[in-house]
Known about the structure:
mainly alpha; 30 helices; 63% helix
Amino acid sequence: MDAQAAAGAGAALGRRARVAWLLRVNRLLAEEKPLRSLPAFSAAFHGGMYDREVSTSTVSRWETGRTPVPWRAVRRYEELLALPRNTLTATARTVWRYWAPGPVLDVDPAGPAARPLEDLLEQAVSGDVMTGDDWDQLTDGLCARPDAVLMPSGTWSALAERLVEEMVIADDLPWMLRFESLNRLLNHRRGGRTVIAVCGGMAAGRARLTATEIVCALDNCGHPDAADLVLSELARPSGPLAHRGAVMACFRKVRYRHFDEDQLRTLVRAVRDSTGTGPFGDQIEPLRGHLSAVHPEYARAVLGRRGTTRRPGDGAGAGADPDARALVSAAVRRVTARLGTVDPDRTCDPAVPAVLITEALASPLFDVRLYAAFLLAATPYRPVLADALAAELVRPMAVRHEELAVVLLEGLRVLGDHRHRGLLQRLAVLPSVPRPTAYAAVRGLGHVAADRSTGDFLRGAVAHHHAAWLNDRDPVTAATLESLVYALGMASRDDLLTAILTGADFLPVARTAAAWWLDIPGHRRASALL
């Protein structure tokens, strides 16, 4: 399946179908083989978080997307299949929000809270550890009380500040739970405006080095303050990462009609004048195409004299490099072929993962690539697909073509495990590797087995990229050094963070990032892992 065909197939594969496939593939490839039988699974369903009997036809309708599945039923899938709590629930809720045709203001709870809301609030504003599940239950409880008054008056700010700080240093399920919790707080009737202001202040202030996901989170929030903040970061950015987050937020804010006419004109000017160059400019060209498609009356103003832009179905870099597009398509075919090795005796709807793999590697939209990888990561396909991506990255042609290498490394950043750490480390410092590829590899170091980074590799990586930056002050190398600081923080290498902070000749933004990491309270750094 090529990128353009996948774009059409992906658009047809709505959120209900994605959640249905997530449940179905996990059951069909369950370790407990009796549960692979639909009648046996249905007979065992009553219990745990689901207190009603279900028929085989009901489960079949859930798994084919003919009827929506209740969130408590998703939780019951986790229990029956012996999956870690939130593996399916958090992924399904994330997919449900992202692919919704309109803003999702809140999500029904996936079950009763284990503890009273008041206890969770007290825990969150204290120095106690908060898990991602604690945040999930807390925000569920607050959404159930849209007129809740929190006392003292600064409680909303304190909640938002801690949640955002933990979110930007979390990974995998802990990150997903916090990101979805933030989305719910942003849309809270009473607290939303305060949460928006906290996001803006942190993105422009001490958390500016992690501002992309903070600003991007505003895409689902229809409050006028959120639109103003996104446009402000687009037209007068507080930093390149906040600007990238604003660009990414605009895709859905444009589709959801969050901007009035005056704001649209501001957006058009900002997008028209953006260069789309540098390590953080990859989403500008897709946004031009998206804005022109949704608002054709502004197409000429957005595109200027170019008259054309990259099509929504084009792959990463495909508009500029047909060879890269062909390489991506070939990689998609090889990775998809690996699916048959998981369990050849089971038929698990190969068309759906084929679409998701194509999205993960060929979509020009970063968020589409990310959410496709999230969905694949919550299935038994994860280790096989991670190995397939790693096998592609061993090919010299893939490493030389940065358009392909970057999307492969982005996928491995979500799907990979400790077995792939060595590959990332080699690509991060090998002199022959193009700088954008090395940058993508370094970004993966903070996510793939970050806690297993022992020895002197990170020290050598910092020295390598610091020397390169001193030599030519290249912006990609500067971004790589910033990402290395994130990897040091995720690996709890405070010794190296301190060395960067006190090194007078280090990149100033890297020193600022090191100081930010060292200032994060211990209970928050511990919480972000849970």
